[in-house]
From TrEMBL:
It comes from the Bacteria. It holds the Pfam family S1_2. InterPro entries: CvfB_fam (IPR014464), CvfB_S1_st (IPR039566), CvfB_WH (IPR040764), NA-bd_OB-fold (IPR012340), WH-like_DNA-bd_sf (IPR036388). This is Nucleic acid binding protein.
Amino acid sequence: MSYLGTTQTLFVKEVSNEGAYLDGHDLGEVFLPKQEIKHELEAGDSISVFIFLDNANLPTATIKKPHAQVGEYALLRVKEINSIGAFLDWGLEKDVLAPFNEQKPRMQEGHSYLVRLYLDNASKRICASNNFNRFLSKDEPQYTHLQEVDLIIAGKTDIGYKVLIEESHFGVIFYNMVFKSLFVGQKLKGFIQKVREDGKIDVVLEKPGMAKVSNLGDIIMEKLKEEGGVIALGDKSDPEIIKKIFSTSKANYKKAIGGLFKLGLIEIEAKSIRLK
């Protein structure tokens, strides 16, 4: 079975001067234009292509890779807005539509938005939506304390970053728990800190404990070697500079350099550390 909005491996049925006709199974013939063919094809060959509908609503193939496929999230820029919605650049010549009723908040031309691509059941058209609630799980979250999860940064609020957890629930990373640059659309790992009684979920990016500190110690040692044996960051250094250099809190940094000191690897001063 072939699916619109996804990358598939299809067999070539026929090759003509205009391009190749591929076996799209339930989609029928899928046309691959001649300019998309980068090497010689003949009937029976297979090729990996992305399938979408052209302006005549006919299944068409391309070897180009869009920024996202159906069921995936991506940060896309609005190129144009007309009477039916916003058209977003997703890496193909034909832009993807975000209908007005799928915009939350309403999109503006030239701005970029995190969206999920979906296949509209009625029109069979590939569309984009930033109304994420309709894609989330309706089940109560069953995450456990410090469970590792996949995250997507969905936006910023007054208290922290709003994140999608496993593409199933919303959560928040409080600003005071962030020690590196984050941006909307970024995909990264995190850990469940707490699932509250009201179902809201707190997330952290750093797993607490000595394992994290030990790993930070290795990073500090590498940095020391790169800097000729001295780093101008010690016990009394500015937390913001530590955060900028090592993407961690001052407390974690002090624990890490304390561990290196006990191992006899470094010397610690108020505003610097150095290799022994």
